[in-house]
Amino acid sequence: MRKALVAGNWKMNGSVTSNRELLSALKQAIPGGDRVDVAVCPPAVYLPDVVDQLHGGPIAVGGQDCSDETAGAYTGEIAASMLKEVGCEYVIVGHSERRARQGEDSAWVARKFIAAQAAGLVPILCVGEQLSDREAGRTDAVVAEQLDAVLDLAGVAAFERSVVAYEPVWAIGTGLTATPDQAAEVHGLIRARVAARDSAVAAGLRILYGGSVKADNAAGLFALPDIDGGLIGGASLDARSFVAIVDAAGAARG
């Protein structure tokens, strides 16, 4: 059975004081174990402090993005090697907010995926459709294109050392959530798409759901066979909610 992963994407939220309060609560409530991996992805300026506070414990740290370049005249960018150096284990690539606001296309995301792995990080590759895509019946085509761009450039073997997160864009920060059947359908598509190239890699690939996961809907989502945890947004900023989601992922693997 694949070990679940629950990763909290703090986005552009937090402060030195509030981060420490949140992490203190999480450290007390999340003991670690063999059922669930847990990670938090704070804003880059807080990474060293978060790594220091979580050092030696079961909660890993990830970056929210990385450059596709290794070094150079790229003002404001952060190389994957820099994230690794300060103690990150994961990095999110291709989040829908960056695809939309920063114009990151699938080819760009694929290069970031490769850069992350080259630096020793585990990329959390985000794929997902807009509401207009779903209404037009294009969900499968959009997700397949985003996934294939990485498969074609990195090769299927690279997915042995990565995580995929399905995030229906219409369900992020809106309070809407894909039904379990809707989520299961796309997760199944992702696994089948990888399996068409290598069934063993697909069987071991962790696929997270990332669309407004909350304490009250996590159990139903995580009970589905192709959903291996969640990429959590707003609920990751509240210790009680995040712990409840982690507990739900553990129970689903019980």
Structure, explained:
By secondary structure, the chain is α/β, with parallel strands linked by helices. The protein is built from eleven helices and eight strands. The protein has helices spanning 16-29, 47-54, 80-85, 96-101, 106-118, 131-135, 139-154, 180-195, 199-204, 218-222, 239-252, and strands at 4-9, 36-41, 59-63, 90-93, 122-127, 163-166, 206-209, 229-232. The protein has an eight-stranded parallel sheet. β2, α2 (47-54) and β3 (59-63) form a beta-alpha-beta unit. The relative contact order is 0.16.
Secondary structure: elements and pairs:
Blueprint: E1 4-9, H1 16-29, E2 36-41, H2 47-54, E3 59-63, H3 80-85, E4 90-93, H4 96-101, H5 106-118, E5 122-127, H6 131-135, H7 139-154, E6 163-166, H8 180-195, H9 199-204, E7 206-209, H10 218-222, E8 229-232, H11 239-252
Parallel strand pairs: 1-2, 1-8, 2-3, 3-4, 4-5, 5-6, 6-7
Produce a short descriptive summary.
The chain has 254 residues and is α/β, with parallel strands linked by helices. It has helices spanning 16-29, 47-54, 80-85, 96-101, 106-118, 131-135, 139-154, 180-195, 199-204, 218-222, 239-252; strands spanning 4-9, 36-41, 59-63, 90-93, 122-127, 163-166, 206-209, 229-232. Helix content is 43%, strand content 15%.
Strand content: 15-25%
- H/E element order: EHEHEHEHHEHHEHHEHEH
Count of discrete alpha- or pi-helical segments spanning 4 or more residues? 11
Structural class: alpha/beta
Share of helix, binned: 40-55%
The largest pleated sheet is described as:
8 strands, parallel
Mean pLDDT: 95
Instruction: Please list the strands of the largest sheet in the order they lie side by side.
Output: 7-6-5-4-3-2-1-8
Instruction: Report the count of strand segments.
Output: 8
Radius of gyration: 17 Å
Question: Which consecutive residue ranges, at least 5 long each, have pLDDT under 50?
Answer: none
Give the overall silhouette: globular
Terminal Cα span: 10 Å
